[in-house]
# Entry
Amino acid sequence: MERTFNDMWNKNHLNNMGDEIKYDNWLEKYMKFFNKESKILELGCGLGNNAKFLAEHGIYEVATDLSEIAVNYVKTQIPQTEVQILDLTKPFQFEDNSFDIVIADLCLHYFSSDMTIKIMNEIKRVLKNGGRLFARVNSTKDLNHGAGQGKKLEENYYFVEGYNKRFFDERDTKKFFGTIGDCLAKEGTMERYAKKKFLIEIEAICKK
Ligand SMILES: C[S@@+](CC[C@H](N)C(=O)[O-])C[C@H]1O[C@@H](n2cnc3c(N)ncnc32)[C@H](O)[C@@H]1O
# Structure
């Protein structure tokens, strides 16, 4: 099952490799929190949209993903970026309080409720007190738009076209991301995919 999931993502990344890395500047407003000494971890980095944005600002993160295809690609595109395989469903191989910033862009909405809470606790563990998580996840507004509904697995959690996908509303955003600490969330949209994507953008400040 796990192997299949990884294979599916590898295939997805292989299909998109070679496309120009695109980013949409969502991190721009948070740049005041980044500096060259910041320890930054990106989860589910994919083909490096955010790593590229940061590199263009002279900032290098630790880029991680389940997919070896993805992290190897990021390494070839941005050699200064440190890369590592990291499966979000397993304990992260980093010490407590290792990072000032964690970035998780469209990668925290694939998991059951119990697993999502475990992942939030891992993010909290590796963040320093006062450190920040910047994340984007599917909004429940996307249910009737790009993402469709599929087979229901849990409240706001569906099997859609081969993927398990969670959709966040205000209550769930607070429930899950509130685990980390104080949490600001706002609705947004993204034009990267064929259909407009409705998402929630979160800034969580780690409180230990
Ligand atoms: C929609 S893509 C987003 C990629 C990238 N963050 C971006 O915005 O361009 C979701 C990413 O999550 C990764 N992913 C899926 N399941 C994962 C897991 N269990 N652990 C780590 N990464 C995972 C996939 O390989 C993929 O790169």
